[in-house]
């Protein structure tokens, strides 16, 4: 098994637009980010819903078409748990809208960050019952899946690092995500799979085994960055590929051996470092590291 050669082509490079959403410390509109990427020969992005909404869905779709730029995913749906029936329904409604937006933008998948204890993100968890929120998440994904199948939009469950189990996602390993996939889509139809983000799963002793288990039907997205030592912030101190301890080529080798042939999407939240630099410098570095270490 030889890896695809990234050194001579940018075909497999995608930029998650959070990576350059702040440049020199200031928020930058998505339209500008798209133009920056296009100017550097980057052919794919993965935008966030709030960035799209700030510009307007149709305008973004039009700009992407005009530039011939594709998506590697759309960020994001999920956040299913709630304290009451109205809250659960509101989450389902919002996920339908996310599916529709992903379709308008011609995304290959909608990424799901599934959510966890209601209120925990704001420091006020409404309860502590993680088993309950796992059930709510499974039911929520099932409902979204039914709708998304009809629209033709695959859903990619993204397991998050266990340090985020309370507030952002109660699905924390690839094994757990694949168990949900097997329960809700036993036929491996391609409608439900996973987003493998190295930041969240690199440490997992079962990673190679679970990537092989996923197979190409379930491997819908691959996100790269690096794990810095020390990590100074649990959410927004991700490293540039090559600056940390993740064995990127080894993991990509497992992905490709399992049949993954999609993008390597660079997703770096970096409040103290990359978000303080100019966007062109950050993107140029992404390109260089994509060629050399991803
Ligand atoms: Zn990710």
What do you see in this structure?
The strands form two sheets. A nine-stranded parallel beta sheet has the order 5-4-1-11-10-9-8-7-6. It has a two-stranded antiparallel sheet with strand order 2-3. It is built from ten helices and eleven strands. It has one domain (13-292): TIM Barrel, CATH 3.20.20. It has 294 residues and is of the alpha/beta class. The longest helix has 22 residues, at 130-151. Helix 1 (30-39) runs parallel beside helix 3 (57-67), helix 4 (85-104) packs parallel to helix 5 and helix 8 crosses helix 9 (248-257). A hairpin with a 2-residue loop joins strand 2 (22-23) and strand 3 (26-27). Bound molecules: zinc ion. Zinc ion (ZN) is lined by residues 158, 195, 197, 223, 267. Zinc ion (ZN) binds at residues 158, 195, 197, 223, 267.
Largest sheet: 9 strands, parallel
Could you state the order of secondary-structure elements as H and E? Answer: EEEHEHHEEHEHEHEHHEHEH
**How many individual domains?**
1
Apparent shape: globular
| Count of strand segments | 11
Unreliable stretches covering 5 or more consecutive residues: none
Q: Percent of residues in helical segments?
A: 40-55%
Q: Based on helices, strands and strand pairing, what is the structural class? A: alpha/beta
Note the topology:
Blueprint: E1 13-16, E2 22-23, E3 26-27, H1 30-39, E4 44-46, H2 49-55, H3 57-67, E5 70-71, E6 74-78, H4 85-104, E7 110-113, H5 130-151, E8 155-157, H6 174-184, E9 192-197, H7 198-201, H8 207-218, E10 219-224, H9 248-257, E11 264-266, H10 279-292
Helix pairs in contact: 1-3, 4-5, 6-8, 8-9
Bound molecules: zinc ion.
Zinc ion (ZN) is lined by residues 158, 195, 197, 223, 267.
